[in-house]
């Protein structure tokens, strides 16, 4: 079987004018991830990444510590859902939600509150309640992430090590497909995926198995534990 390492990007700049870039902690997380791979002499046959800046910056900092002789493939199929758009569409549909009022007052500075609204937005999106207010429907999001996973797993080589750099929402949809989860459970897992975490799968043809989820072996040390983040 072949092995797929699915990485969530390192911490981005939440609460700033440009979320799509790494914070100082995010750069440290990505560096530690690269050091972890380098110490284990892990070499990837393929690296596939989304096209967000935070994906590229995570890879750049990681690969500075563990250079790989492989061309990086980039695909928008691995990009995150448009969470700002979902947040806005949900606010338009449910202005009476007290979390919406609080969110406007705090201008997205409260991460716990923001993620509470996003969780509600994702469920409404799945139910089709935000259609017409958003660029991408939930079914379109499911289709593009599912297509990417199928494309990777149906490649006919064996014993390969592949790395996928993406975002939490995409990872939750991979789990939704692999484990046949009810969507609310996939959303709950989405809210738990930590920055620079590793989700590991084994696959052969149409068969894919989850080996581990949301692990942080590169940060689970006395030196790095304070750098574990979700946002």
Describe the protein.
There is one protein chain. This protein is α/β, with parallel strands linked by helices. It is built from eight helices and six strands, in the order βαβαβααααβααββ. The longest helix is centred in the N-terminal third of the chain and has 16 residues, at 24-39.
Spatial separation of the terminal alpha carbons: 33 Å
Number of helices: 8
The biggest sheet, with number of strands, parallel, antiparallel or mixed sense and barrel status, is: 6 strands, mixed
Q: Estimate the helix proportion, in percent.
A: 40-55%
User: What is the mean pLDDT?
Assistant: 92
Taken in chain order, the helices and strands follow as EHEHEHHHHEHHEE
Strand proportion, as a percent range, falls in 15-25%
* Number of separate strands: 6
What ranges have pLDDT less than 50 throughout 5 or more consecutive residues?
Answer: none
Q: What would the principal axes of the Cα set say about the shape?
A: globular
Q: Which strand order does the major sheet show? A: 3-2-4-1-5-6
Structural class: alpha/beta
Rg, rounded, reads 18 Å
Please render the helix and strand layout as text.
Elements lengths: L1 E7 L15 H16 L6 E4 L3 H13 L6 E3 L8 H11 L4 H9 L4 H16 L11 H16 L7 E6 L1 H12 L3 H8 L7 E7 L2 E9 L16
Parallel strand pairs: 1-4, 2-3, 2-4
Antiparallel strand pairs: 1-5, 5-6
């Amino acid at each position: 079987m072949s092995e797929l390492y699915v990485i969530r990007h390192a911490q981005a700049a939440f609460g700033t004018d440009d979320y799509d870039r790494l914070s100082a902690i995010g750069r440290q997380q990505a560096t530690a991830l690269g050091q972890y791979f380098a110490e284990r002499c892990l070499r990837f046959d393929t690296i596939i990444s989304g096209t967000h800046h935070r994906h590229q910056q995570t890879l750049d900092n990681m690969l500075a510590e563990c250079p790989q002789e492989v061309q990086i493939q980039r695909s928008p199929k691995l990009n995150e859902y448009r969470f700002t758009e979902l947040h806005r569409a949900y606010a338009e549909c449910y202005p009476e939600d007290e979390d919406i009022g609080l969110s406007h007052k705090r201008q997205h500075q409260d991460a716990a509150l923001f993620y509470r609204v996003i969780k509600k937005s994702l469920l409404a999106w799945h139910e089709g309640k935000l259609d017409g207010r958003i660029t991408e429907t939930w079914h379109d999001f499911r289709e593009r992430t599912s297509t990417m996973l199928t494309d990777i797993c149906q490649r006919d080589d064996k014993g390969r090590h592949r790395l996928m750099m993406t975002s939490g929402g995409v990872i939750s949809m991979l789990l939704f497909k692999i484990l046949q989860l009810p969507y609310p459970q996939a959303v709950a897992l989405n809210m738990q995926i930590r920055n620079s975490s590793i989700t590991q799968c084994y696959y052969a043809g149409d068969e894919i198995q989850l080996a581990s989820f949301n692990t942080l072996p590169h940060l689970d040390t006395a030196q790095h534990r304070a750098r574990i983040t979700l946002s």
